[in-house]
Structure formats: C-alpha cells, structure tokens
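Quick check before the chapter quiz. The format below is the same one you will see on the exam, so make sure you can read both the input and the output lines.
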Amino acid sequence: MEITILDGPMGTALIARGHRAPAPMWSAAVLKSAPEAVSDLHGEYAEAGAHVLTTNTFRTRPHDVGPTWSTLAAKAVELAKTGRGEHTHCRIAGSIAPHADCYRPDLASVAAGPVHAELASVLARAGVDLLLLETFPHIPEALAALDGALQTGLETWLSFTAGPGGDLLNPDDVHRGAEAAVQMGASAVLVNCIPASDIARFLPAMQDLSVPFGAYANAGSPEEGLGWTDPTDGPKRYADMAEMWVDAGATIIGSCCGTNPSHTAEITKRFSPFSDRTAS
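Here is the expected output.
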C-alpha cells in the first residue's frame, strides 16, 4: 500500500525556533520577519521525506494581515517552491484555514465562502499543485470553503478537526462532513490537529468513502512526551501510532502542532517504499 507523507507544522515549529508569531497574523508574520526561515523549514520537511509541502498560508487572509494578504499568500507559495529545491517530487499544497479560530466553531460562518474562494484563487494562480482545506471544526463552513476551492479546478483535500480536546466534532459528524465533501468533489478527506492518542476513533468515519483518507495529529499535551519539547523518543512513538492509522486504512499521513521534521523523518522510515514494514 502506497502512503503519501505530509509535512509537519509551520507555526509551532517556527515558534519553537524563536520566531515571533503574534495574533492575528500568527505564522504569517514570519513571512515578513524571516522568510528564509520559512523556506528552510520547507526544505527540512522535504529532506525528511515529505511528499507534500504545505504553504504557510494558514493566516494570509484580509482580516488577519490586511491589504497585503494576497502578496503574502503568493510569497508563501514561492517560499515553499524554494524550500522544495531539488526534491521535485514534492507537491505544493495551498493551505486554507477557517475564517475565524480553528478551535471556535461558534465563530464559524458559511458566509465566509467567498473569502475562502478568493484565497484559493490566489494560491492557484501562484502555482500550487493542490489545495488543502485544513483544521475545520464546523462542517457547513468547511463545505462552503470546499465549494470555493473546487472552482479553481485544482485537486482539493478537506481536513476536519475535533480540537485539542477531541470534542468539537464526533466521529458521526466527521462521517457526515466527509461524505458530503466527497459528493461535492473532494479528492481526499482527513482529520488533523487532534491529539495523536485520540486519532484512531475518527478513522472509521472515513473508511467507507471512495477517496483516500488520512490523518495528521498534534503532539497532544507536553506530558505525553510526543513533541513540543523535542523528546528523544517522541517521533518514534508518534510513528508507532501512525502505523495503527495505516492499519485502519489511512494512506495520507503527516503531523501537526508540536511536531517537527524529525517526526516526518520517522514516518518516512516506516512508510517509504523500501521500509521493512511496507514490504511485509
């Protein structure tokens, strides 16, 4: 079974390296303050074996960064391409996030569909290979964003989140949202930014659909020792969990907040075409 390996986070990884990412721009601020750090991080994920590099456009929207938003979004795409370097097999995914807070579904708005569509259009013109709608805790807004993204004609993946507590959506919600997304034309459905230790219960919600599905989890609480403080065995333990996700049928695997390129490298060891596990 062929596994597509996603990269890891931009925001928390950049913060861990000492870069400031204040609200509301969050990781988009680093596009201005240290663009080379963004391209370097993309390069590390590519070196670690990622097949997909995700643009640092989680917050490049008008209400977060102001009138330069489209310029910053296009710059983020160029930085991902620069970071990719000689790893030409890596596809560039344009990240599109919820209009408000990804952990506040009460602030979600279906009316934000045109804003999502506008960002999707900018990303498409800048040359991304696919669009990744990620960390959506509110199904109607996620589907509105999907509608706008599909208008570009690009392959589009949609990822839902149940949040750090795993309680913003339940598996039935994910099934309902994923099924609707596939009917609309999503090419893949995922869950992300749920603690790695809680991912497994959401995967059956996507198993019976006709498209690839997957997961990229966060490191959970620091006490779990999977990330945040870069524990020695954190990447290995994360990949142990990812093996269970693959056993459940997931074919798109990555990592989210609190992880770093060492997690990507460990995932690559497990799921590259030459790994003992894949060959068995």
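If your answer matched, good. The beta strands are 4-5, 52-54, 91-96, 130-136, 155-160, 188-195, 213-218, 252-255.
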